[in-house]
Amino acid sequence: MEQKQLLSLIIPVYYEEEVLEESYARMDAAMQSTGHPYEIIYVNDGSRDGTMKVLRKLAKEHEEVKVLSFSRNFGHQLAVTCGMDAAKGDALIIIDVDLQDPPEIIPQMVERWKAGAEIVYGKRAKREGETIFKKLTAAVYYRLLRSMSAYPIPLDTGDFRLLDRKVADVFLEMRENARFLRGMSAWMGFEAEPLEYVRQERAAGKTKYTLKKMLKLAMDGITGFSSKPLTLPLGWGVALSVLAVLALIFFAVMWIQLPNDKLIWIYSLGISGFVLLQGITFIFMAIQGMYLGRVYDEVKRRPLYIVAEKLNI
Ligand code: UDP
Ligand code: MG
């Protein structure tokens, strides 16, 4: 009989002592019901509350629980990356500890994966128990990101997802510091399937994503996946320059044609000349931006290409 494939569940934790035990119970039950052998990897992202105490206890009682603890807070995205580095599974599942993403749909994710999906991502059909502010900013942000990004990042998805080992290995080749997992996942391509779910209220505790952390993540999402902001001045620069040249011609003609009121045309010429200079400055800013974008792409050292399948090779 074929041996069952190993699943790795990766859970970042930051000041979550209130929710950990309940969370473990539900995650463990969900993993058991997949019928596969599994490991549960907790990454403590520098919590100083009782989180480690609970994790030590869980690790002592259950050998499939693995724990990695950071020396300080490195952030959710790096905690997930660390867990993925340590994972041994044939499929990796990333989930938040707070039960907002229901672990009960993990078996469905695994079924989709066995049916051939290389990435199965949770798509939030509805969000429950989140503030209007969070829902609104999230909705606007995802759409802004999509309009800026060169690769379509699916709307309303978080980091709750299953990655096939092959996909995870490619992902882990990318060692950039500012990480935005869902963007990197979209960048890689592969067969990605959405699985709809209702985002629940946090089971206990408060959100650990402060406004500052959210803003940083939002900026990482945009700057990491789009060089559009760098070349934004190009359009303005061209428009301003064209306008200024037209104005220069117009005012010059007026200056020559009308014998009186010479002074006003000279002033107008001066202003148009200034606007033209500004337009040219914008164009050069955009040109610098293009080089900067290239340097940025190069230093990220992403894989040049990704082979999803090989035949007769
Ligand atoms: N988290 C983390 N490091 C941080 C912030 C959050 O590891 O600096 C973890 C947190 O414990 C949780 C997940 O990331 O498992 C998502 O955080 P949270 O639920 O607070 O974010 P929200 O769902 O409110 O966006
Ligand atoms: Mg949460």
Structure commentary:
With 313 residues, the protein is an alpha/beta fold. Helix content is 51%, strand content 15%. The chain has helices at 20-32, 51-61, 76-86, 106-114, 132-148, 165-173, 181-188, 211-225, 228-231, 233-257, 262-300; strands at 7-13, 38-44, 65-69, 91-94, 119-127, 157-164, 192-199. The model has no long low-confidence stretch (mean pLDDT 92).
Could you tell me the number of beta strands? Answer: 7
Structural class: alpha/beta
Bound molecules: uridine-5'-diphosphate, magnesium ion
Overall, the morphology is: elongated
User: Kindly state the mean pLDDT as a whole number?
Assistant: 92
The helix content, as a percent range, equals 40-55%
Assess the beta-strand content as a share of residues.
15-25%
| Spatial gap, N to C terminus | 28 Å
What is the chain-wise order of helices and strands? EHEHEHEHEHEHHEHHHH
Spatial sequence of strands, sheet with the most strands: 3-2-1-4-6-5-7
Radius of gyration: 26 Å
Number of helical elements: 11
Main beta sheet, described? 7 strands, mixed
Poorly predicted residue ranges: none
Keywords for this entry:
binds magnesium ion, 313 residues, single chain, binds uridine-5'-diphosphate, elongated, alpha/beta
Would you summarize the structure shown here?
By secondary structure, the protein is of the alpha/beta class. The chain is built from eleven helices and seven strands. Helices cover 51% and strands 15% of the residues.
List the helices and strands and how they pair.
Layout: E1 7-13, H1 20-32, E2 38-44, H2 51-61, E3 65-69, H3 76-86, E4 91-94, H4 106-114, E5 119-127, H5 132-148, E6 157-164, H6 165-173, H7 181-188, E7 192-199, H8 211-225, H9 228-231, H10 233-257, H11 262-300
Parallel strand pairs: 1-2, 1-4, 2-3, 5-7
Antiparallel strand pairs: 4-6, 5-6
Helix pairs in contact: 10-11
The structure holds uridine-5'-diphosphate and magnesium ion.
